[in-house]
User: What shape does this take?
Amino acid sequence: MTRSVAINVGANTTAPGFRGPIYPDGSFEFVPIPETEPVREPVPTYGDLPLSIGIPDEIRETPVHFDPEFAEFGPGERYTYGDPHGVKARPLLDLEAGDLVYFYATLDFHGEEAPNGICPDWGAYLIGRFRLARDPIDGESFETLPADIRTLFRNNAHVKRDPFDARVLLHGDPEGSGLIETAIPLSAESGVEPNRLVTDLSSDSGEGPWWRRPLRFDEEGTEMLEADGPDRRRASTDPS
Assistant: This one.
């Protein structure tokens, strides 16, 4: 029985003050949020990321919170994700190896006319997924794990924080993880209006700011969500 949870990630109008772009063909760019906590080792800046979108000069040297980590993007080595917040950690810790974690972001449309399925202003879209290579790791047990397991997370943003603060850590199997080629809409006619993937397939009501919440999918919902195309992944370089 495969279950899944979708988690909101990426740049927004609060941090760093703009959203990542989506284009008429459904292609997009994943833009992480800024790093706001002390770190024990250097982390990438906005200027280090392979982005074609114009990054304001005043934040080019701003460190980024590179999470989730995608092996095919920028300084990524593997597929890892961490989160310090209980509202996200709890549903993720309920998953098991083989289950799926989707990542969705709010994106701004860049183009003259938005085609069907893409919001003309901003909307929420699935941008990537992990198929879990192992059971989620409770952050409290991370430091007691064998060194070879901890090494898998050496490039994760929460492991680089000082102090380490993740309540959950995820490791994605490279055979079923990555950014997807074409963003999959979760919004309907406008960003605040959820489409059927949210209202029919997830356990969320779709009321209020649903685009900020974890979205849970049972086995049937996950199967139907997979049928909508998240397997269209970009090429991976994950060595694990």
About this structure: The two ends are 25 Å apart (CA to CA). The chain has one domain: 4-226. The mean pLDDT is 94. The first strand starts at residue 4 and ends at 8.
